[in-house]
Design goal:
With 472 residues, the protein is of the alpha/beta class. The protein folds into 2 domains: 205 residues, 3-Layer(aba) Sandwich (Rossmann fold); 190 residues, Spore Coat Polysaccharide Biosynthesis Protein SpsA, Chain A. It is built from 16 helices and 28 strands. Helix 9 links the parallel strand 16 and strand 17.
């Protein structure tokens, strides 16, 4: 259970305290809210800026109201002996006034705060109220359901929605993967708005592209998000292999939006709620070498209908990696020309002849944007490493198997290798003359090895004989 808790909190970049999480969209907001409340440490306040129903209120160990609540006698009012407490027989919930929040949190560590009770639902609080709650010394984190969706797996907000507190540290747009394939009229709240934002007629089926666009649209999942808040979407209700494949497609498209650093794929009602956390990974292609053993610049040699480097880039483009960057050195003009034909950016390493691999990697790391979570270090002379092998490594990394992920074939470690951004500073401090493998030697306990069925991970084109043997 502890590993599940750590995985859930890490998936949304949550700290032990100081979190104000606003959950929007559809497809399981309440499930997420209560899952987070179970695993976050400290004293947690749950609330809503919209409304919540009695069935959902019963999931909380205690419910406080923002003011004294008077329940009509017709609803079955019964005064308890405890001061400022009423028992609502219709909802079966103890209703406490806000002045009793501290003692409630001392007892339960969790409490739901609502506004007035109207029938079978409770109204929400003002948008400034969650920030005031977080400023209390007896509250560690606040989780807000900031949107309504009428139990539909996706939605588009109306003009007055969502109601996100301005102090929110995290905003989580939620969608259910079961939205894909269903008619928008059937699976969406405010289907007419969803049709406008996705460009799909309301009587047509939701597509993976449409769902991704809905999440990343400024009038959809990104509406009213505070500038400083982290945006981490959740693709929820993923319970089958087919749904996982679909969710991965949606997540890869969502990550094209630069404001979003990662996407969580999971099922919040399961014991282990997080399946994968898709983080933005850049493939660094080290193509600066002089190929002294080959006698020719091997990345420029013919390979089928392209070149060795061209095939490496084709394989990466066909994989699930988010971005590519080629580091040039020797024969930089020719290498750049190949990359440009595939719209892949390049950076020149003027020190390529001395410590080519490490110096190239250090130059790349210094140029990476902050929204990237790791790098896939790819050698320019591995055209036989296909996209399927690359995706095996990426999935292991996204599933949290290790901060360093490396392939193994018949007990031999090979390339490419994924390195978490956690190690960037250490890589930058490695002295001249070192190699990136020094990092792996220092942290063997952090490496996750993936068995692959491809000898290509240990095959470099270092000699003319090897080139002639393996070329198409």
């Amino acid at each position: 259970m502890e590993s599940y808790a750590a995985g859930l909190l890490a998936a949304f970049n949550l700290k032990p305290s100081g979190n104000l999480v606003a959950i929007v969209g559809g497809g399981g907001k309440t499930s997420l809210m209560f899952a987070l409340s179970r695993y976050l440490p400290g004293r947690i306040v749950l609330t809503t800026t919209t409304r919540i129903f009695s069935a959902q209120m019963k999931l909380a160990p205690a419910v406080c109201t923002t003011k004294w609540v008077k329940i009509s006698a017709a609803a079955g009012e019964k005064q308890s002996e405890k001061r400022n407490q009423l028992w609502d027989e219709k909802t079966g919930i103890d209703l406490l006034s806000l002045e009793e929040l501290g003692p409630v949190l001392d007892r339960y560590n969790r409490c739901l705060i609502v506004g007035d009770i109207v029938g079978d639902k409770a109204l929400g609080v003002a948008d400034h109220f969650p920030g005031q709650l977080l400023s209390r010394v007896d509250v560690d984190s606040v989780i807000v359901e900031a949107d309504g969706s009428r139990m539909r797996p996706c939605k588009a907000p109306a003009s007055h929605e969502p109601v996100i507190p301005p102090e929110a540290t995290h905003v989580i747009p939620v969608v259910g993967i079961d939205a894909v394939g269903g008619k928008i009229n059937d699976i969406a709240h405010r289907p007419e708005r969803v049709a406008v934002l996705t460009g799909i007629d309301a009587d047509q089926a939701m597509t993976t592209v449409g769902l991704a666009n809905l999440i990343t649209h400024e009038e959809g999942g990104l509406k009213s998000v505070p500038t400083e808040a982290q945006v981490i979407p959740l693709i929820n209700k993923v319970e089958t292999d087919a749904q996982l494949r679909t969710a991965r497609l949606v997540a890869s498209m969502i990550l094209k939006e630069e404001r979003i650093q990662q996407v969580v794929i999971g099922a919040m009602r399961q014991t282990n709620p997080v399946i994968e956390v898709r983080r933005r990974i850049t493939a660094i292609v080290l193509a600066a070498g002089e190929s002294l053993r080959m006698g020719k610049t091997k990345q420029l040699l013919p390979w089928g209908k392209t070149t060795v480097l061209g095939q490496v880039l084709d394989n990466l483009i066909a994989s699930s990696v988010n971005d590519l960057l080629v580091i040039t050195g020797h024969m930089a003009g020719s290498v750049t020309a190949i990359a440009e034909t595939l719209n892949v950016p390049t950076i020149h390493n003027p020190n390529y002849s001395a410590g080519e691999m490490l110096s190239s990697l250090q130059i790349a790391i210094r140029r990476l944007p902050k929204n990237h979570s790791g790098i896939l270090v790819m050698l320019a002379d591995q055209p036989q490493v296909g996209p399927d092998v690359i995706d095996q490594l990426l999935i292991a990394f996204w599933q949290g198997k290790g901060k360093i992920v490396a392939p193994v074939y018949e007990e031999k470690r090979g390339n490419p290798v994924i390195i978490d951004a956690f190690y960037y500073e250490e890589l930058l401090k490695l002295p001249a003359g070192s190699a990136p493998r020094e990092l792996l030697r220092r942290h063997p306990e952090d490496i996750h090895y993936v068995d692959v069925n491809s000898p290509a991970i240990v095959q470099d084109l270092d000699s003319p004989e090897q080139y002639e043997r393996w070329r198409p």
